[in-house]
Design brief:
about 475 residues, mainly alpha, 23 helices, about 0% strand
Length: about 475
């Protein structure tokens, strides 16, 4: 009963503070779609950095990656650190160009960006449809995480977690768009990193000498080496390498810093946050597995249940602190995805063709947020797939956007209509392959079942790249 009461009080405090922050953000004034979706291009470096990091590091980390590391060892760290290094490289070299073009061409949604790069409105709509299909699994994974954490802390109230996630997202995202999103991200991101640092410190103290005894067993079982097969590592890692290019919720964040100094600060602070959080999360997974090897923890067969098990041993204040930080991680990512999807509906589909006013577009965006959250709640309630698999599957489906976007950034409309047609063919082909493979094999197996002996995501990337580059061959 004490655990239930503490969890409810912690959630209530977390939600109350977040709601107050979202309400205060309304003072910024929302008059145009650029105000609503990209904060008028006026975010400071610190808030932009924490918002980018909080959006990127979702419930996948403290729930999914902990479990993945627990089950597969150090290979999971290699998988995640590859993402971080690739993202830092992309942000360092491509973000300044994208940031400048966003202001010059007044981009609001990433789909609009792709369409404008090729001069094809239909391309923007195609990208928007891809986002809507691919990101439902990823966003639903965040609600699943919230539901499971609340279920663990309240002895079975999974549905309550879904309700909390939906209501909070509706308020925090719907009120002021990117302003309320970034403001609550700063609050939630700080909560996430603080909870992670305290959690790993407690885990080492609690584990004591059992950790060192367990580590010896891990070494013998191969979990301290590269235990992933090359096929699995490549299939899971390739979508993560291009995450900063293909996922709209983070691409949109690149538009928001108010000046180049703020952009540079965003990149550097994100790198620090990302490295710290990645090391901590993978350490939690490895330490947990070593404690299982030492007999201090029971063996966990479902990776997503490792963190809830650890929290059942932690002191109550720490357990509810970490529990709430995981809810925060899930919320930041889901909110960003929802806002990004709403921008594609109101900007690319409505304003792009019907030329509606900004006021009507914002209203449509808010209605879209509500509709999307209802869809997500249904998918999450059905518990379709595991968090890691749903997250990587979404990025795999969006992988065809990597070559199309990169070519667009550096060649623009140079190839005329043939460039636009090739981009559309590239996206349709790659997306169709990924979706077909997922439908016949399921989310988990589709990622590790090769196509003609080639890792699934590598095959998708190869096909999409070849088709996207066809205009170059005709020069």
């Amino acid at each position: 009963m004490n655990e239930l009461l503490a969890a409810i009080l912690a959630l209530a405090l977390y939600l109350a503070i977040g709601t107050i922050i979202a309400l205060i953000s309304r003072r910024m004034g929302i008059k145009t779609t650029s105000d609503y979706y990209v904060a008028g291009y006026k975010l400071g470096g610190i808030i932009a950095a924490i918002s980018y990091a909080a959006t990127t590091y979702s419930a996948f980390m403290m729930v999914g990656l902990v479990g993945l590391t627990y089950k597969t060892g150090v290979g999971a760290f290699g998988f995640e650190i590859t993402y971080l290094l690739a993202t830092i490289f992309i942000l360092s070299y491509a973000a300044p160009k994208v940031w400048k073009l966003a202001r010059e061409r007044e981009w609001i949604s990433p789909a609009e960006m792709v369409g404008d790069l090729y001069g094809f409105k239909s391309l923007a709509v195609l990208v928007a449809l891809m986002y809507l299909i691919a990101l439902i699994p990823y966003a639903s994974a965040q609600l699943i995480a919230v539901g499971r954490m609340v279920e663990g802390m309240t002895s079975g109230l999974y549905w309550l977690g879904i309700v909390i996630g939906v209501v909070a997202a509706l308020i925090w995202t719907g009120l002021s768009g990117m302003w309320s999103l970034a403001s609550t991200d700063l609050y939630q991101g700080t909560w996430m990193i603080a909870a992670a640092i305290i959690f790993i410190a407690w885990l080492f103290l609690w584990g004591g000498t059992d950790i060192s005894r367990g580590v010896t067993s891990l070494g013998k079982s191969g979990l301290l080496g590269m235990s992933w097969s090359p096929l699995v590592f490549v299939s899971y890692t390739i979508p993560w390498i291009f995450f900063a290019i293909t996922n709209p919720q983070v691409v949109q964040k690149v538009y928001t810093p108010r000046d180049e100094k703020a952009l540079r600060r965003m990149v550097s602070l994100f790198a620090i946050f990302g490295l710290t959080y990645t090391v901590i999360v993978t350490l939690v997974g490895l330490v947990s597995r070593s404690l299982t090897a030492a007999g201090k923890l029971s063996l966990v067969t479902i990776g997503d249940q490792v963190t809830p098990l650890l929290l059942s041993y932690a002191p109550l204040p720490l357990a509810v602190f970490v529990f709430t930080s995981i809810v925060a991680a899930a919320m930041t990512t889901m909110d960003a995805i929802i806002l990004s999807l709403a921008s594609t509906i109101s900007r690319d589909m409505y304003q792009g063709y019907l030329k509606g006013s900004d006021r009507k577009a914002i209203t449509l965006g808010r209605l879209s947020i509500l509709a999307l959250l209802l869809v997500l709640s249904y998918v999450a309630y059905m518990k379709i797939g595991f968090i890691v698999d749903l997250s990587v599957l979404a990025s795999a489906l969006l992988l065809p956007l990597a070559p199309v976007t990169l070519i667009g950034w550096y060649t623009g409309k140079r190839f005329g209509k043939i460039g636009g047609y090739s981009a559309e063919a590239s996206l349709i082909s790659g997306f169709a392959i990924g979706l077909y493979w997922a439908l016949i094999h399921g989310a988990r197996k589709s990622l590790v079942t090769p196509i003609f002996g080639i890792p699934t995501t590598l095959f998708i990337l190869m096909v999409s790249t070849v088709i996207a580059l066809l205009p170059l061959a005709k020069r």
